[in-house]
Prior knowledge:
Structural class: alpha+beta
Number of helices: 6
Distance between the termini: 25 Å
Helix content: 40-55%
Strand content: 15-25%
CATH architecture of the largest domain: 2-Layer Sandwich
CATH class of the largest domain: Alpha Beta
Radius of gyration: 21 Å
Order of helices and strands: HHHHEHEEEH
Amino acid sequence: MKKILLISIAFLSACGGSLTDEQRKKLHEGMEQQKIVKLSDSEITSSALDQGNVIMRNVEKFPSDKKKIDSVADHFHVKIRWIVPGTTGSQQLEQQLIEAYIMGMTTGDLQDNIQKLHTGSTSDDYDSLLYSRPVVSKMPDGTDQLEGIWNIYLSKKQVVLSAVAKK
């Protein structure tokens, strides 16, 4: 779509027409989006963690309102899932995260997490990331109980575009 826009604008200007300010602006925006930018893996992971935190701040405003959570997911172009320990329907990775968080409760190591979701045979081959945040409550006897985990599936492309926009 962007290439068609650029070709159309170039064709119109080559035919003796002049570009309006708005057309110039769109042309420059298109050129900027096509610019190659190199981000390190740690920059992508850091940006995904930041984005996950921003999304979670929005989700925490209304954690039990599915329609508003779906609206947040649409706004940020992500998939948001609430997973409760012991229920069926969670994916294998989500189940492994639940187990890891339960084990982490004994050491007090319950923090947000980023996982790369691999699509190919190499460890560098991934197209999305999974941000997860546990929700823990205190029991009357003082022990911690894992209520569930918020999982936010982030597109690597969206994470990179957001990181580049911040630079």
